Amino acid sequence: MTESTPQTSPTPTTRSAPAAEGTSRLAEATALGRTTIAATVVQKIAGIAAREISGVHAMGGGVSRAFGAIRERIPGGGTGAANVAGVQVEVGEKQAAIDLDIIVEYGASIVELSRAVRRNVITAVERMTGLEVIEVNIAVNDIHLPSEDVEEAPATPTSRVE
């Protein structure tokens, strides 16, 4: 009589070094195949989740927003990992770390806003990708004042004659 050992599903192989920036990372490997998620996907999810919180006026500092506006005008320049202003990600096989640069609306509690942004980003990224978010670092670069929204209306040309 021979003794049988229970067979287990194959375990995913791990890579010792993370892949280069912008390439796909391993998120799940099963006997039926593996799923990879590009860093840009995590970056976009984090950016959208951060903007969903009331009190976040914009993402990125002044310089990154200016470069983003220039990049959008260049054909083909609006794609890639650097496209999401104010969001940097580091993605491994099972974990992700996220850095956010935000501009806060005047009057919002930065402490409460940071908690809400962090919670929403972690929830969205983990739910959508299955990656464990180990940290979300938030840098508040500026405060947006309501008076900055007021644009001077262009003067209507007045006719010299009636």
UniProtKB/TrEMBL annotation:
Q: Where is the composition biased (Low complexity)?
A: 1-20
Report residue spans for region: Disordered: 1-23
| Coiled coil ranges | none
Family stated for the protein in its record: Belongs to the asp23 family.
**This chain belongs to which protein, by name?**
Asp23/Gls24 family envelope stress response protein
Q: Which organism is it from?
A: Pseudonocardia hispaniensis
